[in-house]
Amino acid sequence: MSDFPQNTFKIPEVADTLPTRITYDPDGDILHVTFGQPTTATGYQLSDQLLLRVSPQSKTATGLTIFNYSIHTRTALELPLPGLEEVDEDKPTILQILHSPPVTHFLHVTEGSIGFTATLLHPSLQEAVAG
User: Is there a domain that residue 1 lies in?
Assistant: First the structure.
């Protein structure tokens, strides 16, 4: 990923807790957000557009990967999260992580008639590629 623009995005509440590194791949239109130092993590494919990485030891978020990122920043549509239905025994932990910082500084997750959805909050594409 060293060929892609990298930026340490500063949201005050996140910056106070964990260093947050953002890497954007313009060819694949993929945004990678890493919370804290890179570490071994379990990936949860919440949808075909969103991957959550979780430390198996601490049960905390280590990162997010957002596919088709520029489309989501332009449309601000809710992303259905059908993958939450596939993580039966881990679902309460994953929901707690999705509703806690630092994830809540980037995504807003709600439950509605179609199940769980996420809305992208930060950063804009311009912030993600600034550097």
Answer: no
The CA distances from residue 42 to 57, 90, 92, in Å, are: 10, 11, 16
Nearest to 121 by CA among 106, 110, 111, 109: 106
Residues 119-131 have pLDDT tens digits of 998 766 566 656 4
Residues sharing a CB contact under 8 Å with residue 126, sequence separation 6 or more, in sequence order: none
* 2 CB-near residues (< 8 Å, 6+ apart): none
pLDDT in tens, 40-53: 999 999 999 999 99
Residue 30 is assigned to a structural domain of this protein: yes
| Residue 119 DSSP symbol | E
Number of structural domains (the chain) is 1
d(Cα 111, Cα 85) in Å, to the nearest integer? 12
Q: How many residues does the chain have?
A: 131
- Angle (CA) 86 87 93, round 5°: 150
